[in-house]
Design goal:
Blueprint lengths: L4 E10 L9 E9 L4 E6 L3 H7 L5 H16 L12 H9 L6 E3 L3 E5 L2 H13 L15
Length: about 140
Amino acid sequence: MPTLHTYDYAVVRVVPRVERGEFINAGVIVSCAASQALHACIELDDARLLALDPGADVAGLRMALAALPIICAGGDAAGALGKLSVRERFHWLVAPRSTSIQTSPVHTGRSSDLGSTMAQLMRRIVRTPTPRAGPAAPLLP
């Protein structure tokens, strides 16, 4: 039986107009202390973002989001943050903010394969769900 490791994750949210509090999920950050792993997967859906705010700075938000996987990887490319431990970088990334890039509360799970777990989180939480087969449910009057 594969060994299960505890992991923590947070959903990366884009809040184009902070004062409105509306957001779309744009990625996940996953950390596993046992394997010293820290990864971010980002997929910004421009159409969903622009539905919330037609004037959103898509290019600026994409640049900010692109920094997350770099910070997760650590090292010189991540600047001063890259010198922090995996746990310190995770806690910095998920700290509450009132900016256009925010994270959800941290959740915990158990997995034997972080790559598969991350892909599953992206499918369930970030990507637009596919419509169910069959007739549409009638709307209530």
